[in-house]
Amino acid sequence: LLAKTQQQQIQRSTKLLDAIIACGEESSPKRSLLINRLAMTMNATRAYDYHSHHDFLVMEYQSDILIWPSQAEKLKEIFAKSDNGVKEKVFQILMGGGKSKVMGILASLEHADGEHLSMYMVPKSLYETTIEDMKAISERSFGQKTHGIQFNREPEACTVDNFKAIHDTLIKAIERREYIITTGETIQCLELELYTELHNYSRLDYDARFDRYDQTIQQAIKHKKVYLEQKIRWLTEILNIIKTRSIATIDEIDSVLDCRHEVNFTIGKKDGSFDSEKIDLFGELFSLLTTSTV
Questions:
Q1: Which H or E element spans position 20?
Q2: Contacts for 294 with CB less than 8 Å, ≥ 6 apart
Q3: 3-state secondary structure 209-269
């Protein structure tokens, strides 16, 4: 692999040189940019100990790149352990700096150690493109599978079978040293769904008092209790795995952990009776408070 990556470096330099020649001898911004890239490519050296980081070398070969010194240094900090486990680190990396396609994949590979859940979190807007790119690179480079997990309050998602499937995916990802890609919104929705089901469960005994002589209703409530207990069990186990066994790498952390981004679940039955005058009044008050110069 060492010889192959060196050969790739020569090939990248040759392509840049051909592009410079194709620009002609006249000075131009494009030609200057290509010359700078050629100098960087030719002068680049391996910035890590390949004896200790075989995964870095495989990544370079499979992706036809050379890991930058800044990337190697940050990855070493990410991999550093403390007495309590993984050290929490936050880095500012510019766009195009290899956050997901290089560092994210290597960090997810490292954290998938057979004991922990390796988790890569992204904003909802980046979920589809991130999972597509990282899944292809991880499988091609390391034969490592990637699992995408998204959850919302749609009826088809809030079932015992779906919660069990999510739980089984997390367990398999840990045991097989794979990793999952998810969003902060998904984690919040799972937690809120647990609170909702706990609320619904707590209401069953209260509702049963009003129809305690109706055996049909009592039997229905009994069945619903069993169903809710199953949902609560799987949701609790899912959240417990995430809380106690996961190691998360978060992309765009300023967006994912922004406290202004809220996910709210309503509780109770739908009520379509709204006082339009009150709504208009609240709207006018809000507009007054937000636009007043007083």
A1: helix 2-22
A2: none
A3: HHHCCCHHHHHHHHHHHHHHHHHHHHHHHHHHHHHHHEEEEECCHHHHCCCCCCCCCCCCC
Going by C-alpha positions, the residue among 142, 190, 146 that lies closest to residue 166 is 190
pLDDT for res 231:
96
DSSP code per residue over 47-85: -S-TTT-HHHHHHHHHHT----HHHHHHHHHHH-EETTE
DSSP 169-204: HHHHHHHTT-EEEEEHHHHHHHHHHHHHHHHHHHHH
Tokens of 75: 């990855």
Give the model's pLDDT for residue 141: 92
Per the CB < 8 A criterion, the answer to whether 62 and 50 are in contact is no
Say how many C-beta atoms besides its own lie within 10 A of residue 87's C-beta. Answer: 12
Report the C-alpha gap between 254 and 264 in whole angstroms.
20
Structure tokens at 194: 């647990």
Q: Round to whole Å and give the CA distance between 249 and 90.
A: 10
pLDDT digits (tens, 9 = 90+) for 101-155: 899 999 999 999 999 999 999 999 999 999 999 999 999 999 999 999 999 988 8
Record the tokens describing residue 190, joined without a space. Answer: 């799972």
Hey, is 86 helix, strand or coil?
strand
Long-range contact list for 5-8, CB < 8 A, 24+ apart? Answer: 5/57, 5/60, 5/61, 5/66, 8/60, 8/61, 8/64
Tell whether pTM > 0.85: no
Name the residue among 191, 121, 197 with its Cα closest to residue 159.
197
User: Rounded distance, CA 12 to CA 14, Å?
Assistant: 5
- Which residues 6+ apart lie within 8 Å of 186 measured at CB? 149, 150, 151, 152
Q: Locate 127 and state its tokens.
A: 């979920």
CA distance 23 to 1: 33
Q: What are 19's two structure tokens?
A: 């592009």
